[in-house]
Hints:
Blueprint: H1 4-8, E1 16-21, E2 27-32, E3 35-39, E4 44-49, H2 54-62, E5 64-69, H3 75-82, E6 94-96, E7 102-104, E8 109-121, E9 124-136
Amino acid sequence: MSHMNELVKQISHGVYVIGVSDGKEHINAFTASWVMQVSFDPLLVVFSISPRHRSYAILCDSGVCAISVLKQDQIVLAQHFASSNVDKMTNHQWHYATTFAPILSESSTYFDCKVKQTVDAGDHVLVVCEVIDAGYLQQGKPMLYCETGDMDGSSKLF
């Protein structure tokens, strides 16, 4: 199965920045591409996160997050939040909705969420969230994962 990293990128999905905050002093955000809706009633979404990720501990403590949908022309933002830089939050505008999780003001759409369940899934954890608020911020077509090249380093994993 050569070129597996190229093959799995053919599974269509978007690119998102997921913001987490414990409501006190810890705040962070990360790029995610494994996000999807899983229920209409209640409105549920699921995303995948590495339990080794700094944001995972904050997410577990707070039980809230905000999913910001990146636009097609925001590859630099996707790369920035995919890094392990300790202070990714400065130099970007954020606002806070109902849960106080950070929403990237530059994104097209957001979903403010409460964590309902987590499920271990290989080297990641699936996080099932109930959407409690959502809205439009800016117009633009959503970025697709297949347009990001090797931003996530997946070519080294297969």
